[in-house]
Amino acid sequence: MKKKIIGIAAVLLLILAGILIIMHKKSQLAQAPTPVEVVPAVEAAQAMQGTFPETQRFLGTLSAKNSTDLAPRVTGHLVEVRVREGATVQKGDLLALLDDRPERDKAAGLRADLAAARTALAAQEAVYQRDQSLFAAKAVSQEALDHSLTERDAALARMTSLEKALHAAETDLSYTRIIAPFDGVVTTRLADPGGLAVPGKPVLAMEAPDLGYFVSVNVPQDLFPKLRAGGEAFLSGGSGGEGSIPCRVSRVHPAVRQGTLIIVEIDIKTRPFDLPTGATLDVDLVTGRDEGWRVPTGALLENTDAVYLYLINDDETIHIEKVSLLSRGPEWAVVRGKIPDKARVVTAQESALLRLHEGEKVRVVGDEI
Hints:
single chain; alpha+beta; 4-stranded antiparallel beta sheet; 28% helix; 35% strand; elongated
């Protein structure tokens, strides 16, 4: 009986302790401060009304207007390459030299043969002149005179042949010297002394900076009606933050093969953004103009059938406005809709925009774009 009473008492004590703990927790919760509603922070941009260019971005390639690969026209081992990349050279400078001993020996042998041929021709000419005098005096026959003439003509033909062969040999000898064809800068060194140089295999490459550069862009054929020489374009510095350079389209190639792209070229005086020749850069081609509101592309929430802007009212609340998208570029878009003057729009990732709702209070942070 005693054990039963002790057990009941223990249970009652546990229940009492639980009640006291619950009452203490409720007292703490009652004294806790009421949670403050968190106002989401957003970045904003100013919407601008007006007429804006419609642009499409493509990747362009920078090239020099005048550039060339320098290769020998004869086969030989390189004895000397006098320049490296970045060297400034003048027209006529010797840039590289091949082993010219075979060509030099050949030319020397032909000079000796030519000297002998000229001597032989002079002798045959004297014989012919003598035979002419003797024939006039009827001291030699017509046959002897004709033979003398034949020998003279053969000597003349041999001399002429050797002159041409010497000229060809001297030309081959000149081909062992790679000369700068114009004032410019060496852009690439492709071979070193000791290597075998063969015709058509470049040893050096160079360009003429003073003659300018051009950017070539490949664009789809359906844009051909919207492009013309003199049209607006912008060269972009990409991620380097250098901004953009306004320029004009210089040429639109009038003919393309089936299934290929149109080539658009833009002439420029200097290399933009200090890019090297052959580098790629962004090119924005203006294909039209749209009248409406310009906003950052980060302000657009695009669904399959609609585009929305998140406007910020004067009381810092959100108003979601459905708009029509007129054009879109890499950074900016032009839209049309019921947008008030001096409107501000939220710029954020799509996931952040989806968390905002109509009438929600927000807090603008950072400088407005």
